[in-house]
Design a protein that fits this description.
7-stranded parallel sheet, 12 strands, Rossmann fold, 16 helices, single chain, globular
């Protein structure tokens, strides 16, 4: 304990952070990560400025200084130009550390950053290849993202933080970043907000969910790589053995209409509910209301924030063997990792868990594991050590 105290006992510092949007107005794993990290750093007396796109004026009750650089609805080239112009206008002091989180918004200001201040990039995923996976851009655009924006940005950075060994490998192999510059620090969870303060029945009543059915929950962006279409197919298989199975899906995305139509075609109208955007205060309640949280990702899951959020609320998680998710469960409940990303494998694992054919960790075990390994207070100090080293 004394060694850890000395390790993190650094003088208060000035930290410049560049993110994307403002959580919770812009919901998402990246935005939540930056929100939690910056607030935890301020808790340790650091002065933190967060620059981004679409940020509000700094509210009186927000200890983080917010600097908006552009309108998120403006055309991309106008947005990038505004980022550069407004960043340059708002510089008044030299920070002790610089922490970048998104290559596109970092790219326009790289030459404006002080040369003698260490730059740490938090690699949240391969932006170009995620775009390719979703088929939202042409090949030329993908190449520009990777070779012009991402690679040029990473070359200017001194060190990197990744949330998992899996994304460390991508950063090393696809972007030629040496392992000596890569630090693996998992994501964190606010254990005071995500907790076991409700019984499953009480949580279900609060949300007006069924009180006498086995419930699955998933909170995902509704895009192809998240695997919700595979989960619906798996649910149709499970329904044959467990007719009253019920799935709640929180989230929005461009394939929502397709998924809703798929649910009808599979005859799941009475077994599924699309919740749309779930208010942030209801998320811990939803985790506690479920028997299982399911993460059916098909690719590019760098960490799996929902996994530790669910565990902090005492609810076990079934996940596919994708990205960093297995790294969370491997030393805790490896039986809940599916054998593959296939529909059949997802269905089999969920069915085994619901029918108690495999051992499930208790609420207390889930909670204790998360508090010990993923408390944001400890995680933020590990990140701080890298930023200021």
């Amino acid at each position: 304990m004394e060694d850890n105290k000395k390790k993190y006992d650094l003088a208060p510092a000035s930290i410049l952070t560049l993110g994307t949007g403002w959580f919770p107005k812009t919901p998402g794993g990246l935005e939540r990560y930056i929100y939690e990290l910056t607030h935890k750093l301020v808790d340790t007396q650091d002065q933190v400025e967060l620059c981004g796109v679409g940020l509000p004026e700094t509210p009186e009750n927000t200890p983080v200084k917010l600097t908006n650089l552009a309108n998120p609805d403006s055309p991309i080239w106008q947005r990038l130009s505004s980022i550069r112009t407004n960043f340059q206008k708002t510089r008044v002091s030299r920070p002790d550390a610089i922490n970048l989180h998104f290559a596109l918004y970092s790219f326009p200001i790289l030459d404006l950053l002080p040369k003698d201040v260490p730059i740490t990039f938090n690699f949240h995923g391969p932006w170009a290849w995620e775009s390719k996976q979703e088929a939202v851009n042409k090949k030329l655009s993908i190449l520009i993202k990777k070779y012009l924006v991402e690679k040029n940005t990473y070359q200017k950075c001194d060190r990197f933080i990744v949330l998992s060994q899996a994304f460390g490998k991508i950063l090393h192999q696809d972007y030629q970043i040496p392992w000596s510059k890569i630090h693996i620090i998992p994501g964190g969870v606010d254990i005071n907000r995500f907790q076991t303060n409700l019984s499953p029945q009480a949580a279900r009543i609060q949300l007006d969910w069924p009180t006498n059915r086995p419930i699955l929950f998933t909170s995902r962006r509704l895009v192809h790589r998240m695997g919700i279409d595979k989960l619906l197919q798996a649910l149709a298989i499970i329904k044959q053995t467990i007719p009253d199975i019920w799935l709640a899906i929180a989230g929005r995305g461009h394939i929502q209409t397709m998924l809703q139509q798929q649910a009808i075609e599979l005859g799941l109208e009475n077994n599924i509910k699309f919740l749309g955007f779930l208010p942030d205060e209801q998320l811990p309640v939803a985790y506690q209301a479920a028997d299982l949280t399911v993460m059916p990702s098909q690719s590019f899951e760098g960490f799996g924030l929902a996994v530790i959020e669910s565990l902090a609320c005492g609810t076990p998680v079934v996940c596919t063997p994708v990205g960093g998710m297995p790294e969370i469960l491997q030393n805790f409940s490896p039986d809940l990792i599916t054998d593959s990303i296939s529909v059949e494998s997802i269905a089999e694992k969920i069915e085994q868990a619901i029918l108690q054919k495999i051992a499930l960790p208790t609420r207390e075990e889930c909670r204790n594991y998360t508090v010990k390994n993923y408390d944001w207070t400890n995680i933020s100090q590990q990140v701080r050590q890298v930023l200021l080293s």
